[in-house]
Every structure is written in C-alpha cells, then in structure tokens.
Design brief:
Layout: H1 14-31, E1 35-36, E2 39-45, E3 50-56, E4 62-63, H2 85-91, H3 100-118, H4 121-132, H5 140-155, H6 161-174, H7 179-195, H8 204-211, H9 219-246, H10 254-267, H11 274-295, H12 301-321, H13 327-340, H14 342-357, H15 368-379, H16 385-402, H17 406-423, H18 428-441, H19 450-458, H20 463-490
Antiparallel strand pairs: 1-4, 2-3
C-alpha cells in the first residue's frame, strides 16, 4: 500500500465552491451592516438635447436601521434566505440579463446548436476546410484572437462568444488543439478587448459620462494598451496551443475533448456533400443576421436567443427534407444540446443568488455591497497617489465578482470613485481606467460571469478545471494592468 502512487487532489466542483461562497455571503449579511445611497437626477448634455440622468449621491450613504438583521435561514413569501438562494438567483432579473434571461439564452442556444451538430455538416465542412488550407493553419489563432479582441473593444462583445465557441470548437479539435484554446481565442480575446477599449459604449463611455469627463477621451493611451494586451494574448495563446499540439494529453480538458472527438466522428457523414453546403450556407446566413442585429439594430439577449432558435429550426427542416435527419433526430439533438449546457445555466443562477444574499446590487436598497463599496472608497482618501490608483484597480476587480455587468458596475462604483480621485490628486480619467481594467479582465475568471460560464459550458470544461489553467494568465493580465495604472499616474493621464 505504501508503494502506491498518490492520487492527485481533485479540485472541488464549481457547485461546491459556490456553496461555500454562499455560506460566507450569508455570514457577511449578519456581520456587516447594510447601507444604501440616494439617487439624484443630474442634467447631461447630448448631441441633440439636455437630458436628465440618475446618479448616486456619494454623500448620501446611510446605514439601514435594521442593518444587522441578516438573511434568515429560510424565507417565506418569495423572500431571499440562506436556503432560498438557488431558486431566487435563477428567477432574478429579467429577460434582458442575469439571471433568468441568460439562463434561457444558454439553454435555447445550446439546443439550437445541438440540432446543427447532429447534422454532421460542421464536422464535414471543417475536414474539407482543413484539407484545403493546410498551409495557412498558422494564421488561424492570431487572426481569430485579434478579430475577437476588436469585437470586445468596439461593441462590447461578450455573450456572443458563446455561439462562436460552439462553432470553433470542432475546428480547434480537428487542428489538434483543445477546448481551452477555443475559449482563449474567443471569450478571453473579447474580454481583453473589452478591458482595454478606447471606444466601447458599454463600459468606457458610461463610466466617463458618470465621471463627467468628455466621452471617449483619452483614446491615445487606451489604443497603446489594447495593442500591448492583444499582442500578449496572441503570444500566450499561440505558445499554449503549440504545446497542446505537441502533447495533447497535457491538456487539462483532454478527457472531455476525447469524448467530443468521438461524438463528432459518430455524427459525421463519410464525405462532404451538397446537403452539407446548404446547411452551412443557412448557418452562416444566420450568423450574418445576428451580427447585423447586434451592430445595427442593437439586439441583445432576447433577440439573439430567438435568432439562434430560428437558425436551429431552419436547419432542422433542411436536414429532414435532405434526409440527413428524421424529425425525432432533430428533437433529440435539441434536447441533448440544451441538457449539456444545463450545468452552466444552473451556475449562472446560483452565482446571482450569492449577490442577492448580500442584499443585491441596487444602490437604493440596503445591502452589504453598498457598505463595502462606501468604506473601501473612503479608505483611499489618505493614501499616496500611486497606491490609491492601484487600489482603485483592486477594488474594481473585487466588485466585478458581485456585479459582473459593466454598465451596472459603472453606475454603482464611479459616483464614489471619481470624487475620491479628486481628493488624492488623480484625474478622473485614471479612475475610469481602473474601472474598465478591473471590470473587464476579471471577467476571465469569475464564476459570476454568465458569458464565461456559458463559453465553458459549450466546450464542456468545468469552471474548476478552467481555474487551474487560467490563474497564471490572470496574474499576468493583472500585472500588465497594474503597470498601465502606474504609467497613467506618472504621465498625468487626462
């Protein structure tokens, strides 16, 4: 027995980790008093007129009279309690975001792609593509990473990466890479672009508007930052992908990748045919429709989910008419695709439940989050400028765990952080920089990010497996962000 090799210590499941975080959140609700802010209406000039916007009054913070009540063990009447957090988290929000909207999005999108993958057309098309582009294979990763980074920087691409993970996973596996590489070139690239953007209307513009500085100002440093971060991401991903191609078994996702490869082989038809071309044309036409909707019509979760559902139905009809699938086969594909993403959908809901245990992220409602934010901000007032700037980055990174929405985090934190920047002699532009870096980069690791969990779900990588891989990358990204924060202070970034 003594000579037996020791088994490696298994990482706890993502649901186990979230459960213990839930316990800590419930304890915090009893130990930390809840507080709230008042909302004021301020005039904001636009290109066409002067409109009023709602802002937090940073000087209005008050503790609730029953601030030490904490969450009960079990709440009745639809309230939030220690044992209610899973259900309340899953049904919270609305169709426009977390949690219920994102859960529906994940399940419907997964079901639609289940139908598409069932046809075998994507696998057949990938094999044909690889055969014709063998000499250009080295361009795939840097090109894809740069394009997705631009998508994150220009229009805040995030949740859309879920769909592309599904599309690109078979290609990456066929090229000898793994599921983790797929997430790197899609979702991680979008978040690097999102965090370093010079023009993103969903984080930079909103934060600058709240901080009362010119919209989309300070683009020079941000452009340099985007180039540096994107280049780093490309090099990191290419080195990792090359290592996996040399030694596939070194991948943390090797076991699940092998299962997917075997499934693809089973689903594949022996040779590329006309019906494959028709299915793929319909699929790419659908993707163009989605991209048009997002960029031109400002489509979001409800519309995108419905678009994918429509694509799935159209392709099912084509496959049935072309005798590639029977009607019941298409239904089975939908159910299987949705079932495979069910764990990701559950994690989204449970992660939101933890935020509810802390009182939610509404500044007008008493919550532990409001209290933590207020006193964290106050602590910056007496510190040196360089340290204050760096701690702004840390605070924004921590708060992103609880408020994964970029616009929501900006609305909650910037009214407090911007005036504090004035107090310590920093420009409000630096405060905005700390926000966008802290908000965007931590999306690469936090389990409360619906987009991350969705991407991991569709490539069949558990969050704990992802954590074992991504923590080193996260440290590198945080180090780069810290350097740019210090540079911004040194040059008096305005």
């Amino acid at each position: 027995m003594a000579n037996q090799a020791k088994q490696p210590v298994a990482m706890p499941d993502a649901f186990v980790i979230l459960f213990f975080v839930m316990i800590l959140a419930a304890l915090a609700s009893h130990l930390i008093p809840a507080g709230s802010f008042d909302i004021i209406e301020v005039a904001a000039e636009t290109d066409s007129a002067v409109k009023t916007k709602s802002r937090i009054d940073p000087g209005s913070f008050t503790l609730a009279t029953d601030s030490n009540a904490g969450v009960p063990l079990f709440a009745e009447g639809g309230g939030v309690g220690f044992l209610n957090y899973a259900f309340e988290g899953m049904v919270s929000g609305n169709k426009w975001g977390s949690a219920v909207g994102v859960i529906a999005f994940i399940l419907l999108t997964g079901g639609a792609f289940g139908i598409i993958m069932k046809t075998g057309a994507i696998h057949n098309g990938i094999l044909a593509l690889i055969e014709k582009t063998k000499r250009l294979e080295f361009l795939f990763i840097p090109l894809l990473f740069t394009l997705f980074s631009l998508g994150g920087a220009i229009f805040g691409m995030g949740e859309e990466a879920i769909a592309f993970c599904i599309v690109l996973l078979p290609l990456m596996l066929a090229l000898g890479y793994d599921a983790i590489t797929t997430v790197l070139v899609t979702y991680i690239a979008t978040q690097i672009g999102f965090a370093t953007s010079w023009m993103n209307p969903f984080n930079v513009a909103i934060a600058q508007g709240i901080a009362e500085i010119p919209l989309l100002s300070g683009a020079d440093l941000r452009l340099v930052m985007w180039l540096v971060f994107t280049l780093f991401g490309v090099v990191f991903t290419m080195r990792y992908a090359a290592r996996i191609k040399r030694d596939p078994e070194s991948s943390l996702s090797f076991a699940s990748d092998q299962k997917l490869r075997s499934q693809q082989q089973q689903q594949a038809v022996n040779s590329y045919s006309t019906i494959d071309s028709i299915i793929l044309l319909a699929f790419f036409a659908g993707l163009i429709w989605i991209i048009w909707g997002v960029t031109v019509r400002k489509y979001y979760i409800p519309e995108i989910a419905s678009q994918f559902f429509t694509i799935g139905i159209v392709i099912a009809i084509i496959a049935v008419i072309g005798k590639r699938l029977r009607v019941n086969d298409a239904a089975d594909g939908f159910k299987q695709g949705a079932a495979e993403l069910l764990p990701a959908a559950l994690i989204v809901g449970m992660a939101k439940g933890i935020v509810l245990l802390l009182g939610g992220d509404n500044p007008e409602t008493p919550s532990v989050l409001n209290t933590l934010l207020f006193y964290s901000g106050q602590a910056l007032g007496d510190l040196p400028a360089y340290l204050s700037a760096w701690l702004m980055l840390v605070i924004q990174s921590v708060f992103n765990f609880f408020v994964a929405s970029g616009s929501g985090q900006a609305a909650l934190t910037m009214p407090l952080i911007a005036p504090l920047a004035d107090m310590v002699g920093l420009s409000r532009q630096i405060a905005v920089l700390a926000f966008q870096l802290g908000d965007g980069l931590t999306n690469c690791i936090i389990p409360t990010s619906a987009a991350l969990i969705g991407c991991l779900g569709v490539v069949r990588v558990d969050w704990t497996i992802w954590l074992k891989f991504v923590w080193k990358l996260q440290l590198w990204l945080f180090a780069l962000a810290s350097i740019f924060m210090l540079v911004a202070v040194a040059i008096g970034y305005q």
